């Protein structure tokens, strides 16, 4: 099925929110936090992707709870946070633009009607107006750090569902760490997490870094040789403000301890 063409040459209108959010943007820190799936907004022209809002509110549409955690962590570290306001179902900001699944046709058993039959121009509108500005904001900040020869560590924030509807299984981890070749900072994060009682840590669980398809870590961290940590926090632990506060503070302690250990190795 081919979707009807948009009536304008742009996707986002005057009533749509800007795609990129920034918190503590004027602060200077060795850390830059990013949140690819912070929001679940949909451009008004796309009519909620012809989905009930309940679908956009579940994990396929948004990383539940992670924006609240990221905001608390940003405040505790005194570090900028860059986050995406639009749903990953509109365009997946953690996929290379050329990846076939950058605009999903189905997600955890749910078909996405408005994503079927898109032509190149409609795909490009979503990428150019939503994904590109987000990654440009991140890249610009990293470029500024590099030009000033400032220390930089990227913290990529995500959350995961305790169980998939399409493939039910146990996901016992409280937090996962995702990484590829560069584990300079991740190893210190892991050591700090191990000091906390009763926390189950998944190593590249329930997801890892896909260097062939992912965007954020491969492009912004691995390609630039910037140390990083990518967190996946289980959504039932952070679905409420109280849970977000607990995990925001917990990760604040972990990151600060990891950074102190990391700095010792550089002396």
The domain count comes to 1
Beta-strand content estimate? 5-15%
Number of strands: 9
Q: Using the 3D structure, state the CATH architecture.
A: 3-Layer(aba) Sandwich
The N- and C-terminal alpha carbons lie at a distance of: 60 Å
Overall geometric form: globular
Question: What oligomeric state do these chains adopt?
Answer: single chain
Descriptive report:
The protein has helices spanning about 55, 65-75, 120-145, 185-195, 215-220, 240-265, and strands at about 20-25, 30-35, 80-85, 105, 110, 155-160, 175-180, 200-205, 230-235. Strand 4 (about 105) and strand 5 (about 110) form a beta hairpin. It is built from 6 helices and 9 strands; from the N terminus they run E-E-H-H-E-E-E-H-E-E-H-E-H-E-H. A 7-stranded mixed sheet has the order 1-3-2-6-9-7-8, with helices on both faces. By secondary structure, it is an alpha/beta fold. The protein has one domain (about 20-265): Zn-dependent exopeptidases (Aminopeptidase).
